[in-house]
Specification:
The complex is a heterodimer of chains A (347) and B (221). With 347 residues, chain A is α+β, with helices and mostly antiparallel strands. Chain A contains nine helices and 20 strands. Chain A folds into two domains: 220 residues, Rossmann fold (3-Layer(aba) Sandwich); 108 residues, no CATH class. A six-stranded mixed beta sheet of chain A has the order 6-7-8-3-9-10, with helices on both faces. Chain B has two domains: 94 residues, no CATH class; 61 residues, no CATH class. In chain B, 64% of the residues lie in helices and 2% in strands. Chain B has nine helices and two strands; from the N terminus they run H-H-E-E-H-H-H-H-H-H-H. In chain B, strands 1-2 form a two-stranded antiparallel ribbon. The radius of gyration of chain B is 26 Å and the shape is extended. The N and C termini of chain B lie far apart (62 Å). The chains are: A alpha+beta (347), B mainly alpha (221). Chains A and B meet through strand 6 and helix 3 of A and helix 8 and helix 9 of B.
Chain lengths: 347, 221
C-alpha cells in the first residue's frame, strides 16, 4: 500500500538558526521524489521530520491527508534507510529483515519466511544465515533496503543510501530500486546531493537550498527550464549568459535567442546547458568564441570558451562534447544553441 | 612465532596461579623449600563447612543485590552523561565520581547516619552503601559501551516497529492482539511467545533501543 506525503509550510529552527523555511511539497502515491541539495540545505532534516524523528517548528506533515502531528515514528508507517546501513549487529541477515515482523508478534519461523521473500527481492537469499559483520558495503545496504521494505511501509524514505558505495555498486543499487518500484510501487522520498542519482531514480526532483525549495518538477524540466540561477547551478548547468529580453528574444553575446513565452522584457540571464550548445567552425553559428580551456570528463570533454561581449567584457560559455572536441586552446570557434531556443531567468 | 607468543601468553597467565594451587593442597610450606613438603585436601574440605557456605551465600546475595541496584543506575548515569548538554553532563559525571574521591570511611559514616534516620534495615543499608561505591564503575563501564553505540540504531528500530494497520499479520495470536504495541523480552521459545502475546494484551511498549538488544522499559497505559 502506497500513500501520499505532503509538507505544508514546514519550518524547523534550532535556536536562532532556521534550517527549513516554510517548505511545501507533495509526493503522490507510488511516486519517487528526490530532495536534491548540498550539505546543510535542510534535506535530511525534512526527511527526519517526515519520519517522526524530529518535530517541525511550524507547519504540517500529512500522509494520505491525515496530519501526523503528535504521531510517534513507530505509528507513521514510514520506513527509513540511512546512508549507513545500521544492520543490527546481534542479528543475522534474515533476522534483521525479519525484525519488523517479529516486533509485530509473528513467530520466528513465520517472520523468517516473510523476510526471505524480501531477501530474494534484493538477491540476497543465499546470505540469509550470514552474520551482520560478514557483509560487504553493498550487501549491507541491500539488507537495509530489504529490512525497510519488509516492514511494508506506506512510504519509504532513503537518506543518501548509496553515497558510500562505489560507482559499480551504486549502478547495481539503482537497478535494484527500479526492480523494487516495479514490484512493490512504494512511495519513495530520496535525499541525495548527487544530481545524477536523483535524475536516474526519481520521477521528480525538489531542489533545496538554504532550507527552501527552489523548484520541484520533472527531471527534464529542472535541467532545461530551471526557475533560478541557483537551480541551474545545483543541477550542474554551467552557463548563464547575461543579456536583455525584448519581445520574447534574448539578446546577448550568443546573439538573438528565442526564450520561453511570457518572459517579461528586461535584463535576464540566458540559461543554456553545456550539452545544448554546438561547436561549429569559426564564422558559422550565432556567436564566435575563443577556446580558453579544455577539461576531460572521461568520455566527454568540457570546452570553455570566451565570447566577446558588446561592452567589451567577455562572457564564458562552456560546451560539453562527446569524445575528442577537435579544438585546441586559443582556437576561434563558432557557437550555436542546439535547439535554436533557450530559457531565460531573472535571478 | 605466533605459537611461541601464544604459549608465552598462556604461561604468563598460568604461572602466577601455580603457587596458589600448590598452597591449596599444601599442609605447610616454608622457605627455603621449593615445593611443599607434604600435601593434603584439608583446605578443600573447609569449603564445605557450614560457615563457609553461609558466608559465600551472603556474599553472593550481597553481590547480586548491589549489581541489581548499581547496574540500572549506572546505565542511567551513563545515558545522562552521553545525552545531556555539556555542562549538566559534566555535573553528572562529577557526582558519579564523588564516591571514589571521598574517603570510604567518611562516605560510609555519612551514609550510615542518613540510613539510621530513615530506620533502614541493616542488610538493605549494606547493599545501598556498596551500590554507591559500585556506581562509578557501572556508570563508566556503560559509558564506554555507549561511546561505540550509534543512536541511529534506535531511530531505525523505531521506524521498523510496525504499529499501523497495514502491518504483517500475527499468526497464532487472536486478531485483536495483532499490530498492537508489543514488548519482546528475550524469553526463548513458547514462553516468549506467551509473554509477548500477554504483553500485547496489556498494550506494552518497548523502548526503541530494545532493537539493539539494549534494554526494555515500561508499559503503555
Amino acid at each position: 500500500m502506497s500513500s501520499s506525503l505532503e509538507f505544508i509550510g514546514t519550518s524547523r529552527s534550532f535556536g536562532e538558526a532556521t534550517v527549513l523555511h516554510e517548505v511545501s511539497l507533495i509526493v503522490e502515491p507510488s511516486r519517487c521524489v528526490a530532495l536534491l541539495g548540498g550539505s546543510g540545505s535542510g534535506k535530511s532534516t525534512l526527511l527526519r521530520i517526515a519520519a517522526g524523528l524530529d518535530d517541525p517548528s511550524s507547519g504540517q506533515v500529512l500522509v494520505d491527508g491525515g496530519d501526523l502531528d503528535g504521531v510517534p515514528s513507530e505509528k507513521r508507517g514510514i520506513a527509513l534507510v540511512f546512508q549507513k546501513p545500521l544492520i543490527f549487529p546481534h542479528l543475522n541477515v534474515v533476522d534483521n529483515v525479519a525484525f519488523s515482523a517479529r516486533m509485530a508478534g509473528q513467530s520466528r519461523q513465520a517472520a523468517r519466511r516473510h523476510a526471505m521473500a524480501y531477501l530474494e527481492l534484493v538477491h540476497l537469499a543465499d546470505f540469509a544465515g550470514r552474520s551482520a559483520g560478514r557483509l560487504s558495503g553493498g550487501q549491507e545496504q541491500r539488507v537495509a533496503l530489504a529490512r525497510a521494505l519488509a516492514r511494508n511501509p506506506r512510504i519509504l524514505l532513503l537518506d543518501e543510501p548509496f553515497s558510500s558505495l562505489d560507482s559499480r555498486l551504486r549502478e547495481n543499487m539503482y537497478s535494484l530500486v527500479e526492480d523494487i518500484r516495479s514490484e512493490l510501487a512504494p512511495t519513495i522520498v530520496l535525499v541525495t546531493h548527487d544530481r545524477r542519482e536523483a535524475s536516474i531514480l526519481a520521477d521528480s526532483i525538489a531542489v533545496l537550498d538554504d532550507g527552501r525549495i527552489l523548484q520541484h518538477g520533472p527531471v527534464a524540466q529542472l535541467h532545461y527550464q530551471p526557475a533560478t540561477l541557483a537551480v541551474n547551478r545545483i543541477l550542474g548547468g554551467l552557463n548563464a549568459i547575461s543579456g536583455q529580453v525584448d519581445g520574447g528574444i534574448h539578446h546577448s553575446v550568443l546573439g538573438r535567442v528565442r526564450v520561453q513565452p511570457g518572459m517579461v522584457d528586461g535584463p535576464a540571464f540566458l540559461v543554456m546547458r553545456q550539452e545544448a550548445v554546438r561547436i561549429l567552425p569559426a564564422g558559422e553559428g550565432t556567436a564566435v568564441g575563443n577556446v580558453a580551456g579544455l577539461k576531460s570528463l572521461g568520455a566527454h570533454t568540457l570546452v570553455r570558451t570566451e565570447v566577446a561581449g558588446n561592452d567589451g567584457l567577455p562572457e564564458t560559455l562552456t560546451v560539453e562534447v562527446s569524445g575528442d572536441p577537435g579544438v585546441s586552446v586559443g582556437q576561434m570557434i563558432g557557437l550555436q544553441p542546439v535547439n535554436g531556443s533557450g530559457w531565460a531567468v531573472i535571478r | 612465532m605466533r605459537v611461541i607468543a601464544g604459549l608465552l601468553l598462556v604461561l604468563w597467565i598460568v604461572l602466577p596461579v601455580v603457587p596458589v594451587l600448590l598452597w591449596s593442597v599444601a599442609v605447610q610450606w616454608a622457605a627455603p623449600a621449593v615445593l611443599p613438603p607434604s600435601y593434603s585436601l584439608q583446605s578443600f574440605s573447609a569449603l564445605a563447612a557450614t560457615d563457609t557456605v553461609r558466608a559465600a551465600g551472603a556474599s553472593s546475595l550481597l553481590g547480586v543485590g548491589v549489581a541489581t541496584v548499581a547496574t540500572p543506575l549506572g546505565y542511567l548515569g551513563a545515558l545522562a552523561i552521553q545525552r545531556l548538554p555539556r555542562v549538566p553532563a559534566r555535573l553528572v559525571e562529577l557526582t558519579l565520581l564523588a564516591p571514589l574521591a571521598i574517603p570510604p570511611f567518611a562516605l560510609v559514616m555519612g551514609i550510615n547516619v542518613a540510613f539510621l534516620r530513615f530506620y533502614l534495615l541493616p542488610s538493605v543499608g549494606v547493599v545501598l552503601v556498596l551500590a554507591v561505591t559500585a556506581l562509578p564503575y557501572t556508570a563508566f563501564m556503560f559509558r564506554s559501551a555507549l561511546a561505540t553505540y550509534d543512536s541511529r540504531f534506535e531511530e531505525v528500530a523505531r521506524s521498523l516497529r510496525n504499529l499501523v494497520a497495514n502491518g504483517p499479520p500475527c499468526p497464532g495470536a487472536p486478531a485483536r492482539w495483532c499490530n498492537r504495541p508489543g514488548i519482546l523480552p528475550r524469553v526463548p521459545g513458547g514462553l516468549g511467545r506467551l509473554h509477548r502475546h500477554a504483553a500485547y494484551r496489556r498494550g506494552a511498549v518497548a523502548d526503541a533501543s530494545h532493537a539493539a538488544g539494549v534494554r526494555c522499559v515500561g508499559y503503555r497505559e
